[in-house]
Structure formats: structure tokens, C-alpha cells
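Hey, resending since the last one bounced:
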Amino acid sequence: MCEHCGKAGFDSRKTARKYARGRYPGTALHAYRCRHHREDCWHVGHHASEVVSGEVPGHLFYGRDGIGAHRHRCGTRRHPQGRS
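The C-alpha cells again:
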């Protein structure tokens, strides 16, 4: 368990991906780093619905300055109001 966010945490990306494939076969889970201060903690989760639907390209959504981070900060994740 990750002490910062409470999710299941893994030491490496490879371990997280193996867990996802074994525990949830056939799902489109991906591994990502913990967003709360820890570089050695990985989690598994789904891609954002906006990226899966093709509404927003993945390279514009993810990352520190991506649209997803902006929407998360502004509380407009489900109801986008543009980028300021």
C-alpha cells in the first residue's frame, strides 16, 4: 500500500504490469507512477475516458502540463471549460 494515496503500490513498473495482467486479464490497465512524492511507487489504472474515445490525444492529456492535470486542478474533469 502506498502511504500517500492509499492505493496498492508496486516497486517497479514491471511488477505493476504483471499484477494487472494476472489479476485482471483482458482489461486495458496501464502502470503509472504515484503522483504523491514517491518515484519508486507504481500503480495500475485505466486510461482516461477522453483519451480512449479519441476526444483528446494522449500526448496532450497526460503529463504535468496536460489538459487532464489542468482539469483536475480546476475541478472541471467531467465538464471541461477550456484551458486558461
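The helical segments are 13-23, 49-53, 58-61, 67-74.

Sorry for the duplicate.
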